[in-house]
Amino acid sequence: MKMVYLFKKYIFLIALTVIFCSHTVLASTNSGNNEALGRKLAKHVIKGNKHWSTTDHSKVEALNQNFTSGEEITKACLSCHVEAANQIHQTIHWTWLASGDKSDMRYGKAGYTANNFCISANAMEDKFCLKCHPGWNLKGTEGQVNCLRCHNSSGFNFNKAFSDIKGRKYVDQTKKQLQEQVKKAVADITRPERKNCGQCHFNGGGGDGVKHGDLDTSLLKPNHKLDVHMDIDGNNFPCTRCHTTKNHNIDGRVYTNPAVEDKKTLLDDDKASKIACESCHGRYPHKTNSKMNDHTSKIACQTCHIPEFARENPTKMWWDWSKAGKLKNGKRFQEDGPYGKHVYRTIKGEFRWEKNVIPEYRWYNGSVKSTLVNEVIDPTQIVKISYPMGDVNDPDARITPFKVHRGKQPYDKVHKTLLAPLVTGEHGFWVTLDMDRALLHGSKTLDLPFSGEYGYVETSYVIPITHMVAPKENALKCIQCHVREKSRLANITGLYLPGRDRLKLIDTLGWAAVFAAFAGVLLHGLGRIIMRKNKED
After folding, report:
1. Which residue has the higher pLDDT, 133 or 537?
2. Are residues 480 and 532 in the same domain?
């Protein structure tokens, strides 16, 4: 009986010692001044981050005149900024083509690239899409650059003002007042702010949060919990703080080429692009000797630090064009669902919205491949309109979070290609509700054949998740990935993930080590007990 009591007591002491030692190690790891290197570097990067200007635009003579059109304002801007328009004309924001000119019609919104939202810009023939082109009066590349789209913070509606000035609705005195309002607004020149970028990027796909799960109007004035970088009471970064610019080319594009060609840190090159997390936080951003630093060669920072997207506003996750065109009592209609968002519209079809969405994870080297509207598809399979490049053997690839938007859209049954219906204008589906007519004229805009026979195919479209970075205390915990069931990385293949995967040999060796250690402790304890008993005898 005494032997049993002593054995139990010994095991209890061992357990207590292990618990105490573990707590002590954890406490020492989390205390003190061992600040993570990534935080130290980032603090230095943002020191004195205040912009200044040598120009008061309200005193510039070229801007102190009566304007009757946006083009006249641009002419005034170019009288000083003589190279600005030429630079803009070479950017993807202007051409909507990945090649930078119209010689390559493959990739880009003005080319053969499609999506499963509004599907296509139809070579800039779709005027609804042109609302987000940086030119005046929906003229696309045929128009003048609208400098104020990105460099004016007044929020003034210039197009309406010019329409009123030219119209007959108002008397001369009112028009004179409008002219003064225009001059005052024109002088409100700034670097691009979040609301400038957001007027298009927060509303991509046709509305707030439709396209990007991590970009919506909640980022106009986010709190710390929503985004640690754009927090209005904290860093309050504008988009250009990370999306650095050279000759009006803005870092961050995702088409055939990676958004980041070389992940240099500012320690490597103080003029390096800041588009990558590593730029400011370094390649090993966690505390010294932290196991998390061993993950950075295979895990993107966003994977752990953006645990969910669409955390404030919902985002669209499904769009079914095959349901479009229905009427109720002979009239167009719409139905609202959760979050106060449309779940059906006659002109667009059926939708599904979600909030606090857990991303899907893929290997990603920075490039996205697209299925173009002139490429043959297999309509018996889900068509990947866009998909990330990279795999476990790619040294540039990281496991990265994505929003995957799914839906159904039209395809040509004969040519077995995706179709791009024209949605606005005289022949557009939103006007006529005639899909045959919309598909015919949409194909003409892209100079592509249309057999006249069409069906609907299920598609998927990926969007990298890089915004809405959560505070560190809300980052993913190890157990959310390293777990047998419901692992965040359940679909990631090609590697052994401890805790998630089971290899018989490794499991056997692991358990053998555990039992050997326990047996060693047990034998040691028994030996001590026997030695003590012999001494007592």
Report:
1. 133
2. no
